[in-house]
TrEMBL record, chains A, B:
Belongs to the XFP family. PROSITE patterns: PHOSPHOKETOLASE_1, PHOSPHOKETOLASE_2. NCBIfam families: PRK05261.1-1 (NF003616), PRK05261.1-2 (NF003617), PRK05261.1-4 (NF003619). It holds the Pfam family XFP_N. Gene3D superfamilies: 3.40.50.920, 3.40.50.970. The keyword Lyase applies. This is Phosphoketolase family protein. InterPro entries: THDP-binding, Transketo_C/PFOR_II, Xul5P/Fru6P_PKetolase, Xul5P/Fru6P_PKetolase_C, Xul5P/Fru6P_PKetolase_CS, Xul5P/Fru6P_PKetolase_N, Xul5P/Fru6P_PKetolase_ThDP_BS. Keywords: Lyase, Plasmid, Thiamine pyrophosphate. Residues 588-788 form the Xylulose 5-phosphate/Fructose 6-phosphate phosphoketolase C-terminal domain.
Amino acid sequence: MDGNTKSVAMPLSAEELHRMDAWWRAANYLNIGQIYLSANPLLREKLTVDHIKPRLLGHWGTSPGLNLIYVHLNRLIKKYDLDTIYMAGPGHGGPALIANVWLEGSYTEFYPDITRDEAGMLRLFRQFSTPGGVPSHVSVPTPGSIHEGGELGYVLVHAFGAVMDNPALLVAAVVGDGEAETGPLAGSWKSIDFINPTRDGAVLPILHLNGYKISGPTVWARHSDEDLTKFFEGQGYKPYFVEGDVPEKVHQAFASVLETAVLEIREIQSRARSGASHGRPQWPVIVLRTPKGWTGPKIVDGLQIEGTFRAHQVPVSDVLTKPEHLQILDDWLRSYKPEELFDGAGRFRAEFADLAPAGNRRMGSNPNANGGLLTVPLKLRDFENYQFKFEERARQRIGSTSVLGNYLRDIYEDNPHNFRLFCPDETNSNRLGAIFDISDRCLISDILPGDDHVSHDGRVMEVLSEHCCHGWLEGYTLTGRHGLFATYEAFAMIVDSMSMQHGKWLEHAKRVPWRADVPSLNYLLTSTCWRNDHNGFSHQGPGFIDTVIHRKPTVARVYLPADANCLLSVADHCLRSVNYLNLIVIDKQPQLQWLTMDEAKVHCAKGASVWDMYSKQPDEPDVVLACAGDIPTQETIAAAWMLRKHAPGLKVRVVNVVDLMRLSPADRHPHGMTDADFTDIFTQTAPVIFTFHGYPGVIHDLLHGRDAHDRFHVRGYLEEGTTTTPFDMVVLNRISRLHLCLDVLRYVPGALIEHGEIATLCTDMLEEHDRYIRAHFDDLPEIKDWVWSD
Amino acid sequence: MDGNTKSVAMPLSAEELHRMDAWWRAANYLNIGQIYLSANPLLREKLTVDHIKPRLLGHWGTSPGLNLIYVHLNRLIKKYDLDTIYMAGPGHGGPALIANVWLEGSYTEFYPDITRDEAGMLRLFRQFSTPGGVPSHVSVPTPGSIHEGGELGYVLVHAFGAVMDNPALLVAAVVGDGEAETGPLAGSWKSIDFINPTRDGAVLPILHLNGYKISGPTVWARHSDEDLTKFFEGQGYKPYFVEGDVPEKVHQAFASVLETAVLEIREIQSRARSGASHGRPQWPVIVLRTPKGWTGPKIVDGLQIEGTFRAHQVPVSDVLTKPEHLQILDDWLRSYKPEELFDGAGRFRAEFADLAPAGNRRMGSNPNANGGLLTVPLKLRDFENYQFKFEERARQRIGSTSVLGNYLRDIYEDNPHNFRLFCPDETNSNRLGAIFDISDRCLISDILPGDDHVSHDGRVMEVLSEHCCHGWLEGYTLTGRHGLFATYEAFAMIVDSMSMQHGKWLEHAKRVPWRADVPSLNYLLTSTCWRNDHNGFSHQGPGFIDTVIHRKPTVARVYLPADANCLLSVADHCLRSVNYLNLIVIDKQPQLQWLTMDEAKVHCAKGASVWDMYSKQPDEPDVVLACAGDIPTQETIAAAWMLRKHAPGLKVRVVNVVDLMRLSPADRHPHGMTDADFTDIFTQTAPVIFTFHGYPGVIHDLLHGRDAHDRFHVRGYLEEGTTTTPFDMVVLNRISRLHLCLDVLRYVPGALIEHGEIATLCTDMLEEHDRYIRAHFDDLPEIKDWVWSD
C-alpha cells in the first residue's frame, strides 16, 4: 500500500489534522500501555522489565483502526451535533475503546478512581486484563458499549436493532473482516431492507479490512474493491473506500469519506421525513483498508509483524526475557511521542482533549449505550380484558396464542414507538395475526398489490433469519425499548449462542452499578415439538429450554403456561420485567382451556399449585400427577380423568407447574420453592409422575437436592418423532394418558392388583393405536380417526 | 410476468420439449396426488370426497420449480454422463423429490411395494405425510437425498462439503428465496473461495425466487436482476437469469441456461486440471424466477393463489366440505392430462420415462447420496506411536492437543483425499499446527508472500464461520469421507441446531435399511471455559455437551480425556466409528499428564475407572473423588494429594470418567454401566464429590435412576467468569482443590472434627487467593504469582 486513497478531498486543516493525529497517537499509546505496562506509564524512564506486566494479554491488531474511527467520529459529532454510539464488531479490541473513553473523560466519570492523570493512567493500564480488573474485550464495564464482540457476527444486527424507532440515533458499526465471514454477519447486511428513514435512525457500517484473522487471510481482503462495490451495491448500499498506511493521507481521506457518508445519511433522512422520497434509499457503507497492527513494530526477529496476522494480539512478546524485544517496545511506545500528548502530570493536553464532544454527546456517555436511562415502561391494558371465558371447563378449544395476539395488538396500538414483534415470517402461522389490525409487516422495497399487510411503515419485523430477529431485539431492548421474539420452538436453537451471550451480558450488567435496568428479552416459542406432527422430526426439538436454564438464576426465567389465561398472565408479567431472559413456551394449535382468569392469576402468582378441580381427593393422594407444558397438562388431566373413572378408589392429585424455576431449591434460584412449599405441593412420600414439555433431564437437574426425589418419575420428550398424528407423538414419547395411567399403576404400591381393569384397558388402547398407525395407507378409511388427540 | 426470459436460445426440439414438459406435468400431478388423494389416483372417475385424504399436508408452492429443475438435470446427466445429485434447500417440497424419484424408477428399487403402476401410485399418495408413512419433508427415507431442508439455511454448505475431494461430482443446489434470508445461507456463498477445481467437484447453485415465504414477500425477490447480478459478481459468481410463467418458454430458457452453466463448469474444471488456469474461477449461478405454486389454482374464493404466498402449502383447502373447491382440485389435476402421462395400468409412459438416466446416474440412485457406499476407512497408524512418555507421573506438562496434532498430521499424509480438518481459523491457536507440515490452509484467492501455510492446494479448511465448518463437514461425511471439526468450546453453541439436525438425520438413517453407514461427525472442543481466563466471560460456555447428550443414545457420544494419551486413544476410536456424533472436549494449554499409554488404553476401554495411582487406600474409601474433564481431573488429583498429606487417615478413591455416557444407566444408553459396575467404581455408600467439566445438571441427569445418587455432590461450571487467572476460574466456580477438600470434610461423617487442620489450611489459602485477586492492579508485584494454577 502506498497511502493513496480513492478519495482526494482534504477536509482537514493542518492544525486539525495534527490534533486528530495526536488523539489517535494517544489512543494507540494507551492501547499498548494497557497490554504491556504495570509502571512507568509516561515513559519517564527507559523501559525495564520491572515496568512490564507478568502476563501480556490483549489484541493490538484491530486497535489502530478502531482508534482512527473513534476520533474521526468525534469530529463529526461536534460539527453536526450527532447523536452517535460506536459498536466495535472486533470487540477483542477492548483496549481501544477503553482508551478513547478515557481520553474523552467519560471513563473517569463512571470510574472516579481512574483519574485523568498519571496515576489514573497507571491504574487504567494495570486493571486491563488483570484479575479483579477489567476484561480484555469491549464488555459490560466499558462505557459507551452495548456490544461485546466476543462471539463474532452480531455487530450489525445489534446496530440496526438499536436504531429502530430511534430516529435521532446514528450507530457507527465497525465490522471486522474476520467477523464478516460469519453467517450471521453475512445475513445482516439485508437489515437496510427493514429500516425506514422516516422513523428509524441510521447505521453506518464500516468494514475494516486489515487482511488477517488470527493466522489466516480473510476472505474479503482478497477480493478487489470492484468485487466489494458490486457486493454492496447489489444489496442496496453505496460503498466508499479508504485505503492506505500513511497516517496523514488516511486521515484526510477518511475524514472526507466519513463526512460524506454522514451527510448522505442526513440527506436521506431529511428527504424521507419531509415526504420528498419513499422506498429504500441507498445507504452509505465505508470500506477501510489499513494494515493490521498499523504503526506497530514492523519487523521482529526477522519476521514482518505490521500488516500481517502476527500483529493480531501481542505483536512483540518475550519482552521480559529478550532485551532486544524490550527495546522494540520502548521504541514503539516512544514513536507516538507521549510527551507531546500528555502534560507533566499525565493529563491529556487540552488542545487535543477538546476534540471530544461534550456531555452526553461523548460516545462513552451517550445514554443509548445505557438504555435503561431511556426506558419508558410499556403501556399495558389489564390483561384480564382479553381472557377466554369458557362455558364448560376443559371442554372448549381455542388457540391460546390467538388470545395473546389480541393483547399484543393493543400493545402495538398503545405503544407506537416502544414495542415490536420480531418473528421469522410466522406471525400468522403462530396465530398472532391480530396485530396486523394495527401494524403491517415492515419491508422497504416495492410493495405489490397481492401483498398481505406489508408496508414501509409496518413495524412487525418478519425476516426469515432467527439471527436477525434475535439480534435486532437485543439492540432494541439494550437501547431501552420492549419486544418479543416469537419463533418455532425447534428453530430457537439456531440462536442458542446469541441467547447465551445476551444472558451473560445481562448477568454482568447487574453487577455494574452505573448500568440502568433494561427491558427483558422475551421469547415466545410456539409450534412446539408435540404439535409438529405435520412437519416431522426436524421440527421437534425443545432444547432451547436447556439453554436458558443454564444462564445464571439472576436472569433465567422459564414459563410453560397450559392455556390462554395463564399465557396472558405470564406475558403481562414478562413484559413488565427488566433484565431477564423470559422464555414462554406454548403451542399455537387450538387447545383445551383449563383455568378461569381468576384461577389463572392465582396459579401464575404461585408458579406451581395443586389443581383441585382436576384432582380426586387431593388431600392425601396416593399419587401426584404433575405437569409442565400444554400437552403434558392435557395428557395428565386426561389420565386423571381416566383414573377417576376406572380406578375410583385411587386418590390422585394433579399439580401444574407454570413457572419452571419454582422447582429449583430456594438456594439455587430466586423463584425456587422452599422445601416446605415443595412438600405442600408434592407431598413427602407419594410417588410423582412428572410429565414435562421438554427433555426430562431438565427436571432431573432442577429437582437435584430435593429430599426423596427418587419418587419423581419424569416423562418428557425422548427425541422420538416423525410426520404423524398429535396423539402418536405422545405415544412415541411415552407421555400419553395411557402411559401415565400405566405409570401410576406401576409406582403406586398395590395399585396394579387393585385396578387391573384399567391396566388392561390402557394396554388394549395402545395396541389399538399401534394398529391404527401400522394400518396407515393400506387401510385408510379406518384411520380417519387418527387425529384422535384428546 | 409475460414469459419473456433473458436467454433466447431454444435448445429443445419440439419433441424433446413435449417429453420434458410431460415429465414435469407428471411430477406436478404426483405432487398434488400426494397432498390430496387417498383413492382414484388416475382420476378415472370424477373426484369425490371419498377420494380425499382426511388431513391435507404438504407444500405445493415450491414444488413446480423443484420439478422443473429435476427433469432438466436429467436431460444433461444423460447428455453429458454427469455424476450429479440434487439438494433441495426448500426441503419442505418433499413430494416433489419423491415424485421424481418414483418417475425415474429409483423409488421402487428402494421400496418394492411402491410399484410403478396404479397400485404403487396409490400407495405413494397414501403414505405421504400419513402416520406410519413418509415424512412431509425431503428426509432420510427419500432416495437421493442427503439434505432434509427442514431447518433452512444449510443447502449450500452441505453441497460444497459434498464436492470437496470429490472431483467428479456436481451438486445442483436449489436455494429457496426464503432460505436465502438466513444467516448461514448468506454466509455460505463464499464457499467458492475454498473450492479448488483441480481436485474438488462443483456446486451449481440455483436461487429459486418465487417471491414469498409463508406469508410475506422475500427480500431478494424484491431486488432487481441488476442488484442480484452485482451481488453474485461481487462474490465471484457469474449469474444467469431465467424468468417466466409460460412453461414452453421457461423450458427453453432454462434448458439453455442450465446447459451453459454445466458446460462452463466442465470448462473450468478441464482448464484447471490441465494446468491451463489457476486461481478462483467465476462459477455460474442460476437465478430462476417463477411463480409460487406455478400451474396451480389461479383464483380461489376470489383470492389470487398462484404467484402469491397463498400457494405456499395446500393451495385449495376445505375440499371435503366445499364442492366448488373439490371441483377446482379436479380441474387442476386434469389440467396435467394424466391420461397422456400414464398408461392404462398407471405406468409412466416409456417415451417420457426414458428421459431418466440409467442406473446410478439417476439422482435417486447416485451413491453420493448414500455415502456409506463410497466410504473408505481411514488409514490410521497405531496411535501409541504418538504417546507422550513422561519421566515422572503428574509432573510434566504438554499441550495435549499438540500431541493430537502429530497424529492428525499423519492422517493428512496417509489419506490425501479422504480426511479434512474444519476449523474457524484456530488450527494453530488450538495447537494442531503440526498438520501444516503436510497440508496448507485452503484459499482460492491470491496468495501473498507474508501468508503462512496458505495455498490453493491446501486442504485444511479454515473459515471464520462455524456454520460453514459444520455444514461442510456434514456434506463431506454424508458422501463418505472423514473429518474433524475443531473449535473453541463456547462457540460450538453457534451450531447447536446444526448438530441437532445432523444428529436427527443419523438417528433416522439407522432405521432406514438401505442407508449405508457413514463416518461419524467428530467434534474437538478446545479453548475451554476453564482456560479462557484470558478472553473472559463470553468465551466461557460448556453448553454444547448438553446439546449432544440430548440426541438419541444411538448417536450421542461424549468424551472428556484428561491428558494426551487418553486423547489419542479416544480420537482413534472416534475416527474409526460410524453414525455417531462424537464430542471430544479437552483444553489446548500445556497440562499435566496423568497416565502412561498402557494405562490410558485400559482406562479408555473401560470409559471410567478407579485411578489407584492417585488414590489412598482406595479399596474401602471414606470418600470418592470423581472427575470428568482435564481441569476437574487436575483439581481432583490435587485435592487427593492435599488430603493424603494433611489428612493421612482418610481413605480417598479417585475415579476418572472419560466416556461420559458410561454414567448412564445401562437401559438408557448402550455405553451405560450396569449397576454392578457402577457400584464397583463408586461404591454403594461412600459420598462422591463429582467434579465435572460442564454444567452440573448434565451429571444430575445422567445419574438419574441410580440408587442412592443423593450421595453424589456434583461440582461444575456455574456460569461464573471474567478475564482472570486459571486458578481464579476454578475458585469462582467452586471446583478448586481447596473447595474439594472442604467438600470432603463436609460430606465424610466426622472428618471435619478429625481433620480440622486441613480445613483451616484451605480456608486460609482461599482467603489468601481472594486477597491476591482483590490486590490486582494496586499492588502488582505481589500478584506475580497469580498464574498459580496447580
